[in-house]
Each structure stands twice: as C-alpha cells, then as structure tokens.
Amino acid sequence: MTSIVLNAIFGSKLTPLDILGSEGGLIFDAPKEYLEHGIDLFIVDGPGFQFSYYFSRQGMHFCRNDISILFPKEEIDFSKRDFMKVGIRWNPIEIGVAINGAAKSIPTRPSPTPVEIIKWAREQLFIPKREFSSKEEFGIVINSSIQSIQHKIDKSGAYHGFWDKTHGDRGKIIARTPKRETDVQPILHCFIADQMLHSNVEIIPEYNTGAGNADFLFIGSVASQSPAKLIAELKNSHSRDVEHGYLAQLPTYVDNSESDYGAYCVLCYHGEWFDRPDLSGDSITHRLYDAQKSEIGTSFDSIKIITLDLSKKKSASKA
Asked: For site-directed labelling of 147, which of 18, 64, 232, 304 has its Cα 20 to 30 A away?
C-alpha cells in the first residue's frame, strides 16, 4: 500500500508530484523549534520505496530508501540568523542537504521513483469529490492537476500544438513560433477539464479580477467553509514581463478576487525550435524566487510557480 504525507506547513505549495520526480529540490526557512520538538515534513512509503524528510532533536534527516543523511544539530551555524535556511536536493544517484550555508551530500544507488507510485499519485487526482476536506487539499489538487499536464504532453508528444507555424511553398513549414498565452489558454483548459469535473471544481477562463483578466479562476466546495478559490496566470518564459507577472500581476489578481491561492504557470519553449531564454525551467523558478526577496509588503506564501516544458527537444545530433 502506498501513502504520501505532506506537512500542512507547506499549504498548497508542495504537492506529491513535486517529491516524486526523479530529481528535484526544496528550499525554505525553518524555525529553530523544529529541532526541539521534531517534525515530519514529508513521508513517501510505497512498495520497495521510501522517501522522507524530517527534523528531530538530533538534527535534520533526509532519507531515500536505505541511504540517509543526518545534519547534526551541533553543526548548524546560528551566528548570522536565529532560524534555519534549509534545502534538500535529489537525483537518481545522489541526495544532498544544506543548512545556513553548510552542505552535505551522499551518493546513492540509482533509485528512480517506481512507476507504480507515480501512477497511484496521479490516480488520486481523478477520485470523484463532492467537496474538499480543507482549502489546502483544494490547492494541492489544483496545482497537481496543472503539473500533470506535463506528463500528458510528454507521453503524447503534444508539444506541437503549442506552436504557430508559417508555411512556405507547397505547404512546407518554414518557421515555428511559440503561441501567445491567450492562445495556449484553451488548450490547457482541455487538458484539465475532466479532472476538474471529477473534483466538482468550476473553471472560469479570462476571469475579470477588476485589475485585469486572469487566465483561470478555479472554485471548489470545502466542507464547513466558504468555497476555495485559486487564480492561475500563464506567462511565456521569454516574455519581457515574466518577473512583473509573478511579483505584481498575480498577487494583485489573487488579492482582488479574494482568492486563497495563486499558480504562476511559466511556459518554456527553449529547445530546437526556439532559443529564448537560455534557461531551464528550474533556473527560471530560482530567478523568480530570488526576485521576490526584494519585494516588501507582498506575500508569496500562497503562490506556487509551475513550469511547463513545451519545447521541441534537441536531437542528439544537434545538441
């Protein structure tokens, strides 16, 4: 039997799909109290696979199957801050941790997440719901549903549909350019419509927030609470205002619509057909996180960055 437990401190920003990838990472600020009382941050337990991240009085623990790292409490440097700036990272052959500038890593045997566990996690998105148990559950389901679009695109080779084509003589394609966000919107709507129907979630495209039209507003029923709302905004990674969209536009949309959460969906096209920007989805995400540090008075706690790779991958002969 498979189980995935995510600590509620992450709200909707951490989803099962975030930690089931063959590589990934997590960075956040943690209070010193975690070392006094202990806390489980996430636990994945399935057939032939265990993955966990937690604090105890001994320190910070990060474990993948039979390999674990302990960052001892006495080695944590609190001379510059009275909290912990922590991070973990993993790939199929290594796991690593960092606290307040100090890092440790350890090699592992190749250990990709079993397909059965990933399939199980995706199947949870299609379990019919009349209502959600909490607003956090609603946010996690919506964010996970948007993230799952990547799997559908990769599996079907559907990236072709996100490009505008210019034809020359005899119908030959002579150029390809990324579609505008407004043209991508109905395509993504089709990808997630059935999942939202199963979850009794209403999707409103081009929702007027009073400060501009957001690409999507998601509304879902929550037990014993008011309906939960999430605003999703699409932005091409090569757009000049990709940072402005994250730092100002989406937070304003979330506030004006009185939404609980926001999802900033960055559409990445860099590959064989397009060369801008020369950054991976992870690099763009880190750039946006770095940019938010200079924003005063704006909370990004409820906003998740999701990148979708819509590129034509470079063939081995052209890479």
From this structure: 64
